Amino acid sequence: MTSAHEPGQHSEVTLRVNGKPHTLLVDHRRVLLDLLREDLDLTGSKKGCDHGQCGACTVLVDGRRLNSCLLLAVTLDGSEITTVEGLGGDGEEPHPLQRAFLDRDAFQCGYCTPGQLCSAVGMLAEAAAGHPSHVTDPAAPSGRPVALDRPEIRERMSGNLCRCGAYPRIVEAIEDVI
Amino acid sequence: MTGTTTGTALGAPAERREGRQKVTGAARYAAEYALPGRTHAWPVPAAVARGRITAVDTSAALALPGVLAVLTHTDAPRLAEPEDGTLAVLQGPAVPHRGWCAALAVAETPEQARAAARAVRVTYDTAPHDAELTEDHPAGYEPEQAGGQPGRAEYGDPVAAFAGAEVRVDVTYRIPPLHNHAMEPHATTAQWDGDRLTLYTSTQGGTTVRSVLARLFRLPEEDVTVVAEHVGGGFGSKGTPRSDVVLAAMAARHTGRPVTLAHPRRSLPTVVGHRAPTVQRLRLGAHPDGRLTALLHEVTTHTSRVKEYVEHAAGVSRVMYATPNLLSSHHVVPLDVPTPSWMRAPGHASGMYALESAVDELAHALGMDPVELRLRNEPEREPVSGRPFSSRHVVECLREGARRFGWAGRDPSPGVRREGPLLIGTGVAAATYPAMVSPSTASAEARPDGTFVVRVNAADIGTGARTVLAQIAADALGVPLDRVRTEVGHTDLPPAPMAADSSGTASWGWAVHEACTRLAAHPEEGPTVRADTTGKADADSPYARHAFGAHFAEAAVDTVTGEIRVRRLLGIFAAGRILNARTAHSQFTGAMIMGLGMALTESSTLDPAFGDFPEADLASYHVPVHADIPDIEADWIDEHDTHLNPMGSKGIGEIGIVGTAAALGNAVHHATGIRFRELPLTPDRILAGLLSERRR
Ligand code: FES
Ligand code: FES
């Protein structure tokens, strides 16, 4: 065994997570998901596959939803990260979408839930900003907010797997906050 | 059975008690216990399908930064011989299948552990392997047991009766290997304190993990603590401990540090069990009026060389239909493959796909409505055992489902409903799953402030155990629900059986009910009353106890792309008393969605050359996603059954998957006129079928 850190393999990054700044020396191989879970003990973001295939690790990076298991932490200097722990802001009250998930029983085991929540928040912003999806009417005027019917929600949320099969309830919960 | 609950909490759609923790990210799962000094372990999977490890070169791995150890079969802690051979990891040089643990790297961080595992050089003495399941494989044999029942059941003269039947169906259905893929990978955090072991693990049964691990490490059970507060799904694959628990405990012992091991997603298909592939031959003989004269259900499946696991798919034919002549048998072939195990509704999901598809084929051959055909073959008693059913309302499920779905007036002709390039069809299938129960202990404590605490080492794998057990307790105590707190998921609590076979709530709930009933009747026995249902819950029942259901599906088949889109899915269930309307609904629909995956998207292959699953990750093994799932309706009929347990409940975690695949397959036949007999119904197969039909 040798020492845990070797020069040239670590760099310092500063990022804001849920409003708080953190400066860390990170292994160049460390992905944002592991930075959150291992360095900051923010374990709300889940590791389902570590390969960008399940969405359980979805967080908001500068307002965009991204799979945190695919982002090398060292590339994120200066980024603003929001995780499931930060969705509700500082207050005691959960985010309206978190409340809707509770009201609709939009989860069972809960392991995909943080990713579904962050993804939905990001998705709502994308639709509001006029991003089309695969099922958006090609004739719809570009740049205008996209109305989210069920096929739109389903299409846009399809990067977030739920093996418990809470999909119908998740869609209803999202509809509740539109 | 005495005593039924009378309060208002049972059946109410109470909100999940841990819900707030789950939606805020506060709920901790097994890999998320950052104990001081915690390290990470990463397995090195064997790269050959059969052979012996001749050398493990760990030098390059050990030279990497942060690496603490590489455990091999020569220096890993020696275990007592396990009953479950899949747990005998790092105990010898033999490699029984590709992906078997060949070594284990331990390092300060997950990245370092992964790099170390990759740097380990293993050399093998390779032996020829055989990973290909064929129906006439010379190594095949008839197992004595399949799913706890005799491997073979037979009465009458089924072969002769079938040969002489006026209407006959002789068909073979195939299901590939399928993977549980719970969203939380199998993970354990292990810590030793002297000779005391603490495990934070993702399991469906902490009490079982404790007894298995205590035996393996030769410890008194009280020296093993198992914590499983939140479990990210299991679907059978976390029923008994898997190698993660053993490897984490070994690594922690070896390094003297707490260790977390989370199996990488790509390893899960190999190391946690899979639904074994089945080839199922169904022969149905019938009178022209639809009454069965013979039912033969013969299943061929595989198991590993590590242990015998039989996918007991033919068992359903011993329950479903009245027939004067029956054969239900299994044939299992041991191969050099990963060990199969339980996956949601083991045996039943596979068996009912084949049986209910064949019944649909028979309806077609008879020119009879498939709902009507099922009604005509209702048995009065359970066919093989001759026992009366404690309750059986499959007829009511079929009738209610047909009414809700708008089945009446359905044109039975296949391949005639067109919408542009689409062909539309509807299908039906019945479902069954046994209502099982095991002994459990539980305690109920009356607190001075008027509240109560119910304790039982139940596992909440997403079923809402905390919530429903509080409901059972509140009614038994005769107090409002908010006065009851539940503690689950820790071996300091009264021992309990695992959440498996849809028996968790019945088993734990019975003990909770008994403790609370006694505490309410005899407060002087308090403040804490303990109950043990041994001798009651496991007493022989004179009744055949099963849940039933009916599935209806509408599918649209795209004749240009071969894609199948599900338009509607309806499930109606008769599963005893429903204890929480909200969480029950979620379990029924969730299982139906897994059934949709089984029918349409989920497929794995055992590569004969490599002896492993190429579709090992979630990019290649397609679990259903949001876009695959239409509006799904699940409901139940009120069923009052006093022969089950004090709550009158049957398990609900599995029945929802059972009939889904057959209902969808039958809908696809109704749409296209083509009978596809191999799952899943992927576009390539549909297109090939449509093309060959066109050429005819
Ligand atoms: S863990 Fe990142 S997508 Fe699965
Ligand atoms: S709630 Fe279990 S995976 Fe979605």
From TrEMBL, chain A:
<dbReference type="InterPro" id="IPR002888">
    <property type="entry name" value="2Fe-2S-bd"/>
</dbReference>
<protein>
    <submittedName>
        <fullName>2Fe-2S iron-sulfur cluster binding domain-containing protein</fullName>
    </submittedName>
</protein>
<keyword id="KW-0479">Metal-binding</keyword>
<feature type="domain" description="2Fe-2S ferredoxin-type">
    <location>
        <begin position="11"/>
        <end position="87"/>
    </location>
</feature>
<dbReference type="InterPro" id="IPR036884">
    <property type="entry name" value="2Fe-2S-bd_dom_sf"/>
</dbReference>
<keyword id="KW-0560">Oxidoreductase</keyword>
<dbReference type="InterPro" id="IPR012675">
    <property type="entry name" value="Beta-grasp_dom_sf"/>
</dbReference>
<comment type="pathway">
    <text>Alkaloid degradation; nicotine degradation.</text>
</comment>
<dbReference type="InterPro" id="IPR001041">
    <property type="entry name" value="2Fe-2S_ferredoxin-type"/>
</dbReference>
<dbReference type="Pfam" id="PF00111">
    <property type="entry name" value="Fer2"/>
</dbReference>
<dbReference type="Pfam" id="PF01799">
    <property type="entry name" value="Fer2_2"/>
</dbReference>
<keyword id="KW-0001">2Fe-2S</keyword>
<dbReference type="InterPro" id="IPR006058">
    <property type="entry name" value="2Fe2S_fd_BS"/>
</dbReference>
<dbReference type="GO" id="GO:0016903">
    <property type="term" value="F:oxidoreductase activity, acting on the aldehyde or oxo group of donors"/>
</dbReference>
<dbReference type="GO" id="GO:0046872">
    <property type="term" value="F:metal ion binding"/>
</dbReference>
<dbReference type="InterPro" id="IPR052914">
    <property type="entry name" value="Aldehyde_Oxdr_Iron-Sulfur"/>
</dbReference>
<dbReference type="InterPro" id="IPR036010">
    <property type="entry name" value="2Fe-2S_ferredoxin-like_sf"/>
</dbReference>
<dbReference type="GO" id="GO:0051537">
    <property type="term" value="F:2 iron, 2 sulfur cluster binding"/>
</dbReference>
<keyword id="KW-0411">Iron-sulfur</keyword>
<keyword id="KW-0408">Iron</keyword>
TrEMBL record, chain B:
<dbReference type="Pfam" id="PF01315">
    <property type="entry name" value="Ald_Xan_dh_C"/>
</dbReference>
<dbReference type="InterPro" id="IPR016208">
    <property type="entry name" value="Ald_Oxase/xanthine_DH-like"/>
</dbReference>
<feature type="region of interest" description="Disordered">
    <location>
        <begin position="1"/>
        <end position="23"/>
    </location>
</feature>
<dbReference type="Pfam" id="PF20256">
    <property type="entry name" value="MoCoBD_2"/>
</dbReference>
<feature type="region of interest" description="Disordered">
    <location>
        <begin position="131"/>
        <end position="152"/>
    </location>
</feature>
<dbReference type="GO" id="GO:0005506">
    <property type="term" value="F:iron ion binding"/>
</dbReference>
<dbReference type="InterPro" id="IPR036856">
    <property type="entry name" value="Ald_Oxase/Xan_DH_a/b_sf"/>
</dbReference>
<dbReference type="InterPro" id="IPR046867">
    <property type="entry name" value="AldOxase/xan_DH_MoCoBD2"/>
</dbReference>
<dbReference type="Pfam" id="PF02738">
    <property type="entry name" value="MoCoBD_1"/>
</dbReference>
<protein>
    <submittedName>
        <fullName>Xanthine dehydrogenase family protein molybdopterin-binding subunit</fullName>
    </submittedName>
</protein>
<keyword id="KW-0500">Molybdenum</keyword>
<dbReference type="InterPro" id="IPR008274">
    <property type="entry name" value="AldOxase/xan_DH_MoCoBD1"/>
</dbReference>
<feature type="domain" description="Aldehyde oxidase/xanthine dehydrogenase a/b hammerhead">
    <location>
        <begin position="24"/>
        <end position="128"/>
    </location>
</feature>
<dbReference type="GO" id="GO:0016491">
    <property type="term" value="F:oxidoreductase activity"/>
</dbReference>
<dbReference type="InterPro" id="IPR037165">
    <property type="entry name" value="AldOxase/xan_DH_Mopterin-bd_sf"/>
</dbReference>
<dbReference type="InterPro" id="IPR000674">
    <property type="entry name" value="Ald_Oxase/Xan_DH_a/b"/>
</dbReference>
<keyword id="KW-0560">Oxidoreductase</keyword>
